[in-house]
Amino acid sequence: MRTKATLAVAATAASMFTYSAVAPASFAATAPVASTAISAGAQQALDVVRGKTRCFSYSYGDDGTTSVTVYFHNRCKHSRGIKIRVAQATDACIWVRGGDFDKKKFKGPHPTVQSIKEVSHCG
Length: 123
Hints:
Oligomer: single chain
Number of strands: 7
Radius of gyration: 23 Å
Helix content: 25-40%
Number of helices: 2
């Protein structure tokens, strides 16, 4: 494992050396800044949480400071309820017809999703 990492670092360093030797100095200086911005944007996309229950598939962003939106889709043919518990916000139980999808936005100071469960009835 260490050998592979060393070879990868050496190959990257060699390609950067070749790149900076061929490219003008002004262009070589701006290239690392652009790659850093791309890495930061890709890292923000990793904050999405996805999951499934028997009938539902759902997703939500885990980095909300004032709100969090939960997207859900009932994949079954019959109606089911989805119960969403959120810290720092009011919980919700939503009845969804078979095949339908929707979203629910929760507002509060740094709300975090605690659990998502499929239920046979809301009430």
